[in-house]
Design goal:
1 helix; binds zinc ion; 3-stranded antiparallel β-sheet; mainly beta
Length: about 70
Amino acid sequence: MSHCPACNGLISLTETCLHCGTLLSDAGSREDFYGPYKPYMSNDKCIDQICMHLLICEDCGSCVDWPVPVMR
Ligand SMILES: [Zn+2]
Ligand SMILES: [Zn+2]
């Protein structure tokens, strides 16, 4: 079971579009689209697992990958 705070509604992603500044809408985990994403090491600390979300701008159609750290 995923402990992603965004998937579970504990946090909401409030990123804005780089192109037009519109609030991006969370289209959900990319696992729904592309399958499980492998854990990786970030630059400064080890992240156990990430949940890669797909953020979509409903205004200009831009898509952004947004990694959400998953707490265990
Ligand atoms: Zn998630
Ligand atoms: Zn946009």
